[in-house]
Model the fold of this input.
Amino acid sequence: MKISEIYGKKIITTGGRMIGNVKEVVLDIEKGEVSHLLTTKLENLAKSSNVREELSKNSVLYKRVKNIAESIIVSES
Done:
């Protein structure tokens, strides 16, 4: 799957809770892999007074991804 195909997909937990839609994909260039899926744009995070807190609230670790099809299914946190 291409990274561009992930944008806009719904992120849903295995328990059925809707987290949001993918707005940004964060890559770990050193490892050559996706590290996070963001439910907000990066520029919105940059404007925040507490970037770390906003990142925590608006991102999902890619290692939590269980399946990608019409939606992205992630394990519960």
Notes: Residues 51-57 form the longest helix (7 residues). The chain has one domain: 3-74.
